[in-house]
Amino acid sequence: MLEVLTSLKDRLADAQARIADLRSVFEIAAKERRIREIEALTSDANFWNDPVRAQALMREMATLKASVDAHEQLLQRASDAAVMIELADESGDETAARDAEHEVRVLEAALERAERALMFSGKYDHADAILTIQPGAGGVDAQDWAEMLYRMYLRWAERHGFKTSEIDYTPAEVAGIKNVTLQISGDCAYGYLRSERGVHRLVRLSPFNAGNTRETSFARVDVYPDIQDNDIHIEIHPNDLEIDTYRSQGAGGQNVQKNESAVRIKHIPTGIVVTCQDQRSQMQNRERAMHILKVRLQELEERRREAELRQLRGEHVDAEFGNQIRNYVLHPYRLVKDTRTGYETSQIEEVLDGDLDAFMEAYLKSRITS
Q1: Residue 20's domain spans which residues?
Q2: Domain membership flag for residue 96
């Protein structure tokens, strides 16, 4: 029983530390100050003279109180669990120990829900996602690696019951792909997949050279929220675009249509290139490509503004674009390791088969407390 109680005390200490982190992240102290400010305003006899403003303030206060109350409930649960553990420790009663373990388990579940709400609290986290993969250094091996990543994300989406739609697919000459753009639809698809943005590195014995030597390959993954056009506030001047058409290609490089229905659009000022070939007509592909270009430009602008704000606040700003985020080693040992969180596993086959949630959640949780 002593071992059980020691474990419960450790779990409670961990939960209390997480609650303290949430207090900082949720800015509870600032919300409590704002509640007091609004309460002082409501005591003014003229408060309801402007009913629109008054109702807006009341709604704001209700939202603030909900957040503060949720944090207070976590504190109360932690306090209850501490009392129950102490009682079990003093009495040596196994029933009391089981009740304490139940209370700790309930506290941990409530914490998980609070942390999950934070993980997906971003403006577009509940949106669908547009994911692109491009091979980097490594020749044919890199192109093959890009296709392996493509399959990995398809399998991940399948595990979650998400719908996938291939927007663009350009096969390489020997093996693998030159690039692919994929739409993944489902709740929090973007919230999860934004953790995958960056460079993925593979180390393995190459199947593409006679010596079967060890090779290192790279591929870049980019992820954007698939938001609606009316939520995009980007103006694109027609003179800033180069638009080409070509025949759609499927797996293996074969042309799937006789006419040039596929569309490639280059935004000259940024160098961003978008291609689309999944629609039936050139007009539809052009509209879809323009939508994706707007999404990418909107994301680029928002990330630029966010970096500027963080610099103004004196915070460190990572140059995220192009950063190596994860290593996949097949030889001389087997390991997948995230360079940002340190999370790792030797179950590389499962990871390449779409078992990515542990990596994603480790990253998203690290962003909560960073």
Answers
A1: 2-119
A2: yes
Are 351 and 336 within 8 A, CB to CB? Answer: yes
Reported as a single tens digit per residue, the pLDDT across 143-190 is: 999 999 999 999 999 999 999 999 989 999 889 999 999 999 998 999
Total tally of structural domains belonging to the chain: 2
186 and 313 together in one domain: yes
Do 97 and 144 fall into the same domain? no
- Measured between alpha carbons, how far is 124 from 303 in angstroms, rounded to an integer? 13
pLDDT in tens, 280-295: 788 989 988 999 999 9
DSSP 7-27: HHHHHHHHHHHHHHHHHHHTT
Do residues 55 and 32 touch, judged by C-beta distance below 8 A? no
Q: What is the CATH number of the domain that holds 180?
A: 3.30.70.1660
- Helices 94-119 and 51-91 pack at an angle, to 10 degrees, of 150
- Size (the chain), residues: 370
Say what the pLDDT of residue 37 is.
95
Residue 124 placed within a domain: no
DSSP 240: G
Least confident of 220-224, 235-239, 298-302, 309-313: 309-313
How confident is the model over 6-49, as pLDDT tens digits? Answer: 899 999 999 999 898 888 877 888 889 999 999 999 999 999 99
Rounded CA gap, 97 and 104, in Å? 11
Residue 155 lies in a domain: yes
Same domain, yes or no, for 236 and 314?
yes
Burial class (CB in 10 A: 0-12, 13-18, 19+), 193: buried
